[in-house]
Structure formats: structure tokens, C-alpha cells
Design brief:
The chain is α+β, with helices and mostly antiparallel strands. It has 16 helices and 31 strands. The protein has three domains: about 270 residues, Bira Bifunctional Protein, Domain 2 (BirA Bifunctional Protein, domain 2, 2-Layer Sandwich), CATH 3.30.930.10; about 130 residues, YbaK/aminoacyl-tRNA synthetase-associated domain (YbaK protein); about 100 residues, Rossmann fold, CATH 3.40.50.800. Strands 3, 7, 8, 9, 10, 11, 12, 21 and 24 form a nine-stranded mixed sheet that branches. Helix 13 links the parallel strand 27 and strand 28.
């Protein structure tokens, strides 16, 4: 079997899953973000898909398979031709027709739903396992962030919001069962819907140092949210009366919050930080408390902006007459202003005067600034009080193992999907969508289950349950007993592989540990002299001597114990 293990860690692999899947001969990179899955990985992938398929079928979802290449028209119709332009691969055929390589399949599934006609056909849940393409600017960490991958994506169609709630809850329960069976510990968290749109979404986050996301989690009440959604209970601030009108004062050389705080008795918590963003091409002032950090996804969610970027210094000077460091919103009426909720009602504040090297003190936000929109824009920080129980929040790095969304009518309205309700009226069904990245799940399992010797696969997804290792392949008796045990286990339906290579025993033991096969049956001359072989558990390292005639029974019992209670 082709299992090209490596003796040394690859130089460019940082995350444990990336390093170990390469070393253990599971994957090879073709180019950045594109990986070949080798024989062991294909077997693990099939196990992962099998578990997901069982749980999707269990909630009544029906499996389908849709094309990967989509006509541009359906993406233009949904509006995501523009909103997801930065991650979409576009392909032009020899006739000049532009197509999209699917990032996801809401559009294509909604086209199929155009054939629905009656509420009696609902609820429906459709799913598939299909390749997705995303033009990731920075693929990283092996299978955790790639440009081509397999996703289980499913889509629910219900008559009304109450039905969607039920479909959403069924998927949520199915996901928790899936991740439990895969051996992935997850925290369901509130999340931003981002470019998917819709009302609510839940991410299933696996705490891991390899994770790119941060989760705000309360150990006291289990409140959990992605930092793109998380809030905290800020302490009340007692402001003085301030001044009748803002007062200008010189601040030569001041460019940062810290400069103003240290040199002019203006603590960061009493400053108004003015950021200038281009939102869908329109300059907008974004106001934050000086000691708070803007979360750009919250800004995008609050404004529904499809395109968002910080303004350039020359754009800012043209609009406000000053450069960053001296900016403010007092008296500004020609640009929209959005402010973070932490500034609501604040008085006696300090902000830029829109004159270089000058600031204003005594600012009353409600009196002096024309705020058009108030929103939660602030990124929470570790130690801030939980919004539910007040205990300090912790921030955990995490891997997004799955994500479920309530899409509402976004796509069914765009594609004109309607059904007759019980009163004979045409209504748009409400949709949900639900995704799990298959190869990312494989990598996440490795992040959760490894040690300094290699991967430690749970039995549920291991490429083989047992490896029969013939310690001395040149010994005729060892080779014969090893082959006999291999055939006996295989005939009993146990997934088994035999290692009878002409290698030193130590090399075989190292590869068995590196590849993470749950049980190793070692056949050696010394043991056979006593009529026994050694059975070693990969997870614990425990080894027991078992009579050759009892190996099948022992292996069955050991695998049953490792699997735990039947999934159900």
C-alpha cells in the first residue's frame, strides 16, 4: 500500500494536523491550497462522509449531487456575484461564456426548488457531498484552509419561520451527534452570517491553538459567541457635565490614542476614535471609544456593506481637511456617521478637530455629533464581563468545524420560488443552509487526537482498525502466523492491514504509531516461542500478551471498548 511516511517534520508545516498528515503519508500538496489525498486519507474521508450521511439521513434529508460549475447568471441574480467576488473562481469557456466554480450551492439548490408548488411538499431537506472552490488569498495549515475541498452542504425549505426553527434545531442536533462520533469537541456559538445573509447562524467551534477564529466563552454560564458576534457587559461610566460647547486645543505631534492620553490628560476611555471607511464606495465615519477595537465584520453586518475598506489618507484629507490623528465627527453633516453603542449618551469627551495637530474637549456625543446609526461595533476583550452572568469572558482560539444558517427568504425571493399555502395564497418558502467541510473535519480530528509519536485516530474514522506487524519478516514462522492472523481478522469483517515489509521492527512500530491505527498486533519470534503475540493500544500505549488462538476475541472486545456506546 502506498504510505509514504517521512522521518522528519516538513519545514513549512506548523499546525499539528498539517505536519502529521504529511509525515504519515496521508496527503501531498500539489500547489498552495490544493492537496492530493493518498490511500489512507481516502479511507478516513470515506468514514467521515459515512458518519455525516447516516446522521443526515436520520433527520430525513435526501442526498443529491449538483454541478460544481454554475452559470454566472444565477450568481448575479442572487447578488453574490459582487458580494463574494473576492473568493469566487470565474471560468470563461471557449465561447466566451462566464461560469462560476461553486463556492457554495444555495443558488443551484434554489433553482431546483422552483419546481415546488404546494405547502404539502414541505418541509424538505436536501444535501450533497460536493467539491467547493474558494480563492483563499492565504491558504494555510494544510487541510484547515484550502482553495479546493469537499463540503457536506444541506438546504432546508419550510413554509414559515416556525418550520425553519424546527429544521434548524434538527440540523443542530445532528451536527452535535456527528462531531461526537467523529471525536471532535465543539462549542456551539453565536456567529455572524456574513455574505450568506439571513437572520441567525451558529458555528460549531473546536478549541485549538491551530484555530484562526476567536471565541468568547463564559465558563460560568456557557455563553459562547464568535468575536464577530460577541458582546460583553461594560461597566457604567460616570461623566461630568462637560462644557457648554466643545473647546479646541493644540496637540502638536499627536498621532495616536496613546499620545493624547499621556500628554493631554485624556484617558483612552474618554476619547472618541474616528475611523474613516469606504462602505460600498461611500466615505463613512465610524466612531469608537478610544480604548475599544473595531470589529470589521460587525461593521459590515450593521451596514450591510458588500465592499468595505479603510479610506486612504488622501481620501480622508479631501473629505475632512485633516489627516488621521486629528479626525473627529463634531459638526460633520456631509458624511454618514455610525457610532458604537459604548458612546451613546457620553459627555465630556475628547476627539479630533479635523484640523491637523488640534483636538476638541468637552464633547457631548448626543449634542455635538450627528450620529445616523448606532450599532454594536466593538470587539470584546478577554476578562470583560459576560453579558449574561457577569463572569469574566475568556477568548479561545478555535477551528470552525461546521456552520448553520437561517437564510430566510433571501434566495427564494431572488429566484421567484413560491408555494401555495393552506389558504391557497402564494408564499415564499424560508430556507436554511448547513455546512461541514469534510477534509477540514479530518484535520480537526487530528488536532484533537495526536501525541508526540503521531496521529491517534478514533476507531470510528481510522483508516484501518488493526495493523498486524510482523516484527521479523524473514522468519518463516512469524510471517506465516502474521498472514494467518491477518486473514482471520479480515474474514471476521475487521478492517486490518499487515505490515510484512523487509524493514527493521523499530521502523514498523514507528510507522504504526505515526499513522495512528488504533490497535497493533505484533508477531515476533520471542512471543511465538510462548504461543503469544502482543496487542498494543495506540491511544494508551498499553500492551498485553494474547494467545494466538484468542486474538480475534481480544481485538473485537478492544475495538468495542474503544468505540464506546453505539451512536444513536
Amino acid at each position: 500500500m502506498h504510505i509514504p511516511t517521512l522521518r522528519e517534520d516538513p519545514a513549512d508545516a506548523g499546525a499539528p494536523s498539517h505536519r502529521l498528515l504529511l509525515r504519515a503519508g496521508y496527503i501531498r500538496q500539489l500547489t498552495a491550497g490544493h492537496y492530493s489525498l493518498l490511500p489512507l486519507a481516502v479511507r478516513v474521508r470515506a468514514k467521515v462522509i459515512g458518519i455525516i450521511r447516516q446522521e443526515m439521513d436520520r433527520i430525513g434529508a435526501q442526498e443529491m449531487l449538483l454541478p460544481v460549475m454554475h452559470p454566472a447568471e444565477i450568481w448575479q441574480r442572487s447578488g453574490r456575484w459582487d458580494t463574494m467576488a473576492d473568493v469566487v473562481f470565474r471560468v470563461t469557456d471557449h465561447k466566451g461564456t462566464v461560469n462560476v466554480l461553486a463556492v457554495t450551492h444555495e443558488e443551484a439548490f434554489t433553482v431546483l426548488a422552483q419546481e415546488l408548488n404546494s405547502h404539502k411538499q414541505l418541509p424538505l431537506a436536501w444535501y450533497q457531498f460536493q467539491t467547493k472552490f474558494r480563492d483563499e488569498p492565504r491558504p494555510r495549515a494544510g487541510l484547515l484552509r484550502v482553495r479546493e475541498f469537499t463540503m457536506k452542504d444541506s438546504y432546508s425549505f419550510d413554509l414559515d419561520a416556525a418550520g425553519l426553527d424546527m429544521s434548524f434545531d434538527r440540523h443542530r442536533a445532528a451536527y452535535l451527534r456527528i462531531f461526537g462520533r467523529l471525536g471532535i469537541s465543539v462549542i456551539p456559538v453565536e456567529a455572524s452570517s456574513g455574505a450568506m445573509g439571513g437572520s441567525d447562524s451558529t458555528e460549531f467551534m473546536c478549541p485549538s491553538e491551530a484555530g484562526e477564529d476567536l471565541v468568547a466563552h463564559c465558563p460560568g454560564c456557557d455563553y459562547a459567541a464568535n468575536v464577530e458576534k460577541a458582546t460583553s457587559a461594560l461597566a457604567e461610566v460616570a461623566d461630568g457635565p462637560g462644557l457648554p460647547v466643545p473647546e479646541r486645543f493644540g496637540t502638536p505631534g499627536v498621532r495616536t490614542i496613546e499620545d493624547l492620553a499621556t500628554g493631554y490628560d485624556a484617558p483612552a476611555g474618554r476619547q472618541i476614535k474616528t475611523l474613516v471607511y469606504l462602505l460600498d464606495g461611500k466615505l463613512t465615519l465610524v466612531l469608537m471609544r478610544g480604548d475599544h477595537v473595531l470589529n470589521e465584520q460587525k461593521l459590515a453586518d450593521a451596514t450591510a456593506a458588500a465592499a468595505l475598506r479603510p479610506a486612504q489618507p488622501e481620501e480622508i484629507r479631501d473629505a475632512l481637511g485633516a489627516l488621521p490623528g486629528s479626525l473627529g465627527a463634531v459638526g460633520v453633516t456631509h458624511l454618514p456617521v455610525i457610532a458604537d453603542e459604548a458612546l451613546r449618551g457620553r459627555r465630556d469627551m475628547v476627539t479630533g478637530a479635523n484640523i491637523d495637530d488640534a483636538h476638541l474637549r468637552g464633547v457631548d456625543v448626543g449634542r455635538d455629533i450627528s450620529v445616523g446609526t448606532w450599532a454594536d461595533l466593538r470587539e470584546v476583550a478577554a476578562g470583560e464581563p459576560c453579558p449574561r452572568c457577569g463572569q469574566p469572558l475568556e477568548l479561545l482560539p478555535a477551528i470552525e468545524a461546521g456552520h448553520i444558517f437561517k437564510l430566510g427568504h433571501k434566495f427564494t425571493k431572488a429566484f421567484g420560488v413560491t408555494v401555495l399555502d393552506a389558504d391557497g395564497q402564494r408564499v415564499h418558502p424560508v430556507m436554511g443552509c448547513y455546512g461541514i467541510g469534510v477534509e477540514r473535519a479530518m484535520a480537526t480530528i487530528v488536532e484533537c487526537h495526536h501525541d508526540d509519536r503521531g496521529i491517534v485516530w478514533p476507531v470510528s474514522v481510522a483508516p484501518f482498525s488493526v495493523v498486524v506487524t510482523v516484527a521479523q519478516s524473514e522468519d518463516a514462522e512469524s510471517a506465516a502466523v502474521g498472514e494467518s492472523l491477518y486473514e482471520e481478522l479480515a474474514a471476521a469483517g475487521i478492517e486490518v492491514i499487515i505490515d510484512d515489509r523487509s524493514e527493521r521492527a523499530g521502523v514498523k512500530f514507528r510507522d504504526a504509531e505515526l499513522t495512528g491505527i488504533p490497535l497493533r498486533v505484533t508477531v515476533g519470534k520471542r512471543g511465538l516461542a510462548d504461543g503469544v503475540v502482543e496487542v498494543t493500544e495506540r491511544a494508551t500505549g498499553d500492551t498485553v500478551r494474547v494467545a494466538t488462538g484468542n486474538v480475534l476475541l481480544h481485538v473485537r472486545d478492544a475495538l468495542a471498548a474503544a468505540r464506546g456506546p453505539a451512536a444513536g
